[in-house]
Amino acid sequence: MMNRFDVHATSTLAVRAAAEAFIAIASKAIQDHGLFSVALSGGTTPRSTYDLLASKECASRVDWSRVVVCWGDERCVPPDNEESNYRMARDTLLSKVPIVPDNIHRIKGELVPQTAADEYSDALTTLFNLEKGSFPRFDLVLLGVGDNGHTASLFPHTAVVDEKKCLVAAPYIEELGAHRITLTHGR
After folding, report:
1. CA dist., res. 178 & res. 172, Å (int)
2. Which strands form 67-71's sheet, in the order they lie side by side?
3. Which of 22, 60, 111, 154 has its CA 20 to 30 A from that of 169?
4. pLDDT tens column, 165-179
5. What's the pTM value of the predicted model, to 2 decimals?
6. pLDDT tens figures, 84-135
7. Backbone angles phi, psi at 54, to 5 degrees
8. Percent helix, strand, coil in the chain (nearest 5)?
9. ∠132-135-137 over CA atoms, to 5°?
10. Are 120 and 107 within 8 A, CB to CB?
């Protein structure tokens, strides 16, 4: 796999490029193996991309019946809380496209953090038919970057950054004074 960085002159151009990449990767994945698996992110970074993907112009170019949606991380809040990553994706994208509800696999942020992490890990293990200790291979993982350099809920200088064994963790983030549920980066 090649690392590639694209730089765009404006946020509008960056959003357009992200939506086009989503569409292209989805089409190729569906053509190659019948499904497109994506891990979405929350926060402010992807909101405009989700809005564009939900537009008639873009939504009609994705076979949403073959899209499987997961998340990279979630805040420890109920799904209708305005801080919920799931809620933001639901409100801006998922409620506006013809995706199969059973193909949406959210992190249950309303549960006790470790329980939510364990349940999400079990759900991903089943969904991707993983052997113990294995990590899923998504077709696309959308990630934003926070002001402090965190992506998903992998905050710099926290122990979860070095996690190699568990698929999903529930770290307490000192600077937030709260737990988060996050995919780890694996090996």
Report:
1. 6
2. 67-71, 36-40, 140-141
3. 22
4. 899 999 999 988 999
5. 0.93
6. 999 999 999 999 999 999 999 999 999 999 999 999 999 999 999 998 888 8
7. -80, -10
8. 40, 15, 45
9. 140
10. yes
